[in-house]
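job 3f2a | input accepted
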Amino acid sequence: MGTSLIQILKNVLKVKTVFATVGSDEKKNFLEKELNVTRCFNYKKPEEENFSDLIMKQTNQLGVNLVLDCVGGSYWQKNLDCLRLVN
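job 3f2a | predicted structure (87 res):
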């Protein structure tokens, strides 16, 4: 997710909980410390590659309301797995 999209979510729309995925610890640290992302996952690390499971745990198995994925592809299923189900 681009930094400008995170800034819009946090500063304009006032979204309190934002999760993000990145490919390096440098980006992870920046997003968490500088942009106040709730939790960022480095999908290249084995302990964080199943980010959908970690998001479900962080949200007490409720999931998230919205997934914004500018790339898609191989993470499609993981994105679906962490979406909140509404009855």
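job 3f2a | The mean pLDDT is 89.
job 3f2a | closed
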